[in-house]
Amino acid sequence: MGGAGVARRAAGAALALAALAGLLALAGARLAFWAAPPEAAPGPPPGPGGLPPDFYLEDFEVVSFGPDGRPRHRLQGRDLVHGTAAGGDEARVTAPRLLLLRPDGPPWVLEAPRGRVLQAGRLAWLEGGVRLTRRRPGRGELALETDRARVLTDRALAEADGPVRVRDPWGEVRAVGLRAELDRDRLVLLREVRGVYRLR
Length: 200
Description:
This protein has 1 helix and 11 strands; from the N terminus they run αβββββββββββ. A 6-stranded antiparallel β-barrel has the order 2-3-6-7-5-4. The protein has 2 domains: 1-36; 48-197, lipopolysaccharide transport protein A fold (Sandwich). It is an alpha+beta fold. The N and C termini lie far apart (116 Å).
């Protein structure tokens, strides 16, 4: 009996030690979980010039109004990072879509993979393959393509120095250099102009 009692007490002590070790391991795991810092949320990319951004927008639309209270243009994009660089304020936009609104018909639409907006929105540079389109009721769509364009939004003026392609349902014109007065639907092709038009 004495030997059996000692064996039972030894077995009970071993079980108690095993349970205590399990509790300590569980407590240590929980402490490690609570002490671990949470993953930091991804922050906005750096602003112009590598400086911290003033603000950051995602999937946005910004509307600019004229003195008469009417909307003049809309800027849409995937994201926008605004900051202050050496030359003043600047916003960098991914996948910009700029709509120059008109009271008398469909807007001019400018799209590009990336762009920069300066001078409080009065100047925009679109880069990486720019497409400029306007639907013309009864005449089809007019489309212009160039690599890089400068847009003065308050004057509805777009300019390009490089090769330009202009297309509509009747044909295609290629040139180098463009001045587009969009509020007047006036396109000036600057040099090396060649076109092919289909007679109907």
